[in-house]
Write a structure and sequence with these properties.
With 280 residues, the protein is an alpha/beta fold. It contains 10 helices and 12 strands.
Length: 280
């Protein structure tokens, strides 16, 4: 059944059963645990996609994304339900700590490696890149940004952002590391090539096997674990632990926390943890 409003077709509201099926699917694919309260969010985020595909209800869409030959559409659904708004220099305290307590040390790793493990549209990666370039002088460094979404990673690689998304970038950094668009690109900023060439992006699903990416001095894993249940969170943290160098640092969001074990992490301050011991 399709409801009519002012002569325009409307999608049938999502049912509890349809929501449950979609919720199970997104958990299987991305490890994201959606509460009953997220029903409206799921309905809202998928509504435009259903309209685009001219589908009358969420049951039809679920059958589509569940089809073995519809991997691309399944990825679109995951993108819609997992991509969240971010911005440059989010949670400034983390960047201050990184600058003062890690980069400020007399000796840093060579090269110094950072992994932004849920980088979304890339602002976190390029915020870190500006900080690295500013404070490591000529010392080599590299940043890996990863996400479950191919779509956002393509945007990351371009490094182009509308002006309103750059408001939190310090003025000196904005002038030094971003190119202001003109004519057709007016109102946009392009991250400088010198930074982009030191950042690479890779599709990684944190609930699956982590590919061969080496170990890192610092890992940022922010604003993603709040969507995991306890079991999934523990599995992801175990994987992250293995990717950190001995005494490496893990940053999570201030709204998140770890259940630290003495043999894994110690809390330096809320949302900042250090790998303990000398094991890998």
């Amino acid at each position: 059944m399709i409801f009519q409003a002012n002569g325009i077709s409307q999608i049938t509201p999502i049912t509890d059963d349809q929501f449950s099926r979609i919720r199970r699917l997104i958990y299987q694919q991305a490890g994201i645990s959606l509460s009953d309260q997220k029903k409206a969010l799921v309905e809202g985020r998928l509504a435009k996609r259903l309209k685009h595909l001219n589908m009358p209800n969420y049951g039809s869409y679920f059958r589509l994304v569940s089809s073995p030959d519809q991997a691309n559409e399944l990825e679109v659904m995951v993108d819609l339900l997992t991509t969240n708004e971010t911005y440059f220099f989010r949670e400034q305290q983390h960047f201050n700590f990184l600058q003062q307590n890690i980069l400020g040390k007399e000796h840093v790793a060579n090269p110094f490696r950072i992994w932004s493990a849920a980088c979304s549209s890339g602002e976190e990666v390029y915020s870190l890149a500006m900080l690295m370039q500013e404070h490591l002088a000529e010392a080599p460094w590299e940043i890996l940004g990863s996400d479950i979404s191919t779509t956002v990673l393509l945007n990351c690689q371009r490094g182009v952002y509308p002006a309103h998304r750059t408001e939190n970038i310090p003025t000196s950094y904005l002038k030094k590391y971003c190119l202001k668009g003109v004519r057709d690109n007016e109102g946009m900023y392009l991250v400088d090539h010198s930074l982009r060439q030191k950042c690479r992006f890779k599709k990684i699903n944190l609930i699956e096997k982590i590919p061969s990416i080496g170990q890192f001095d610092v890992i940022f894993l922010r604003n993603v674990m709040i969507y995991f249940d306890s079991e999934t969170k523990d599995r992801v943290i175990d994987k992250i632990f293995k990717q950190l160098k001995p005494r490496g640092y893990l940053f999570v969001s201030h709204s998140e926390s770890l259940r630290c074990k003495g043999e894994t992490f110690r809390m330096i301050k809320p949302s900042i943890y250090q790998k303990t011991g000398s094991h890998t």
